[in-house]
Structure formats: C-alpha cells, structure tokens
Amino acid sequence: MVNLQHINKSFGPQKVLQDISLSIPKGEIVGLLGPNGAGKSTLMKILIGLWKADSGTVEAPANIGYLPENNPLYEDMYVVEYLRFMADMTFTNRKSAMPNKQLVNELITRVGLTPERHKHIRELSKGYRQRVGLAQALIGEPELLILDEPTTGLDPNQLVEIRSLIRELGHDKTVILSTHIMQEVREMCDRIVILDHGVIKADKPIGEVPDLEKLFRDATENHLTH
Question: For residue 168, what are the contacts with CB-CB under 8 A and spacing of at least 6?
Fold first, then answer.
C-alpha cells in the first residue's frame, strides 16, 4: 500500500510537486504519465527515499524495488555473478529466509534469464539487460516496484515479453510504471495517473478511459500551449 498526502516539493522558486495526494493498494499497476518536467521523476525519488518532500506525508513499504530509466549495470560481470553480488550487498527485510544463491537462481528463472546466466552483461541485448535490471529490483522481495520507462528501446518481441512479466509481477505487488507510451498503459495498467506542472490532472481506472490519448491531451493542454 502506498499513501501520499499533500506532498509538496520545490527547488528554489520552482514548484515541482504541488499538493499531491495518492493512494495505491497492493496488487494494482498504476501508469504514471506526464510531459517532460511534469514531476514524475521527483515523485518517484521521493517514494524511494532519495529525496525528501518539503511537506506532506509519505507512507510506503520498507522494501521497494526500483528500475531506473538508464538501468546502470556492471557490464564486465556475468549475469549470475552480478545478481549474487547485488544480493550480498543489499540489506533487505525479506520475508523469506532463503539463501542469496537460491534467491538469485529463482529470480533468474522468473525473469527468463536462464539461457544468459553465464554471459557477460555487456554481451546481452537491450531486452535481456532490462531483465537483469528487473531481477536486481526484485532481490529485496519488494512490496512496491517502481519502473521508470522499462521498455525503452526494446524490439517488438522483447516488448511483449517484458510487458507480460510486469503484468505477472503486478499480481502480488504494488507497481508504479512511468512511461511515455500509451499502449503500455492500456496493456499493463489498472489505473492511470497524469501529472502536469506538478499537479495530478487525472486519476482514473483504465477501464473508465475510452480514449487515453484524448484524456492525456486534455489533461496537459496548458502544458502544450506554453
């Protein structure tokens, strides 16, 4: 469960987030949309604890998995070596007490990395690198998973596979998916939240949105005319 109440954040005179209130239950995948500069990245960084809000309250699980847009990886390490290293380096509050080696093996299977487990990360395609990033984000057995543009640069086959994996992860986790791709929201998300100028302009179940593109245009009209 994620609960944000009256979150505000400014950098100098610039108001980046203004009175953001948002509740997301477990098992829901929320698509976070907005133009560049709308405040999406700031909101995500506040959720993961990298930045503090100027005011308001943040209630979020202690265990959060995060896949940033640039997906930084140690490219000279083997896939299994990297994930075991990250598991050893990560202080977690995991519900299970399984050894790190077993956890990594299960994650490799879950995200479809078994054929690539003994390859250097630098040898992997973009799609498999994203799988490594997802596996790393899942090491702490997070209750909340935050994904920033997780499908950027993937080919059509990779898109289908990663979308399917994210939908599966959303069965037992709260997932926040930041993306610019409307089709992603339609295919993966239960709900859409649109930010513009640091304000929530729309918050609707995806089933109540017959025309997502129109909703986005209407919600960000003032942004587009500046």
Answer: none
Whether the per-residue pLDDT at 47 is higher than 70: the answer is yes
Q: Is the pTM of this model over 0.90?
A: no
- What is the DSSP code (8-state) at residue 46? H
What is the domain-level CATH number for residue 175?
3.40.50.300
Q: Which of 28, 2, 59, 11 is nearest to 198 (CA)?
A: 11
Which of 107, 142, 177 is the C-terminal boundary of a domain?
142
Clarify whether residues 217 and 125 are in a common domain. Answer: no
Token pair recorded at residue 175: 């997932």
Residues in the chain: 226
- Tell whether 163 and 225 lie within a shared domain: yes
Ranges of beta strands (E only) in 62-198 are 64-67, 144-148, 174-178, 191-196
The predicted-structure confidence for 103-151, as pLDDT tens digits, reads as follows 999 999 988 899 999 999 999 988 899 899 999 999 988 999 999 988 8
Q: Which helix (H) or strand (E) holds 23?
A: strand 14-24
Q: Do residues 159 and 218 share a domain?
A: yes
CB burial of residue 63 (10 Å; 0-12, 13-18, 19+): middle
- Are 147 and 48 in a shared domain? yes
**Does residue 11 share a domain with residue 30?**
yes
Query: At 226, is the pLDDT very low, low, confident or very high (cuts 50, 70, 90)?
Result: very low
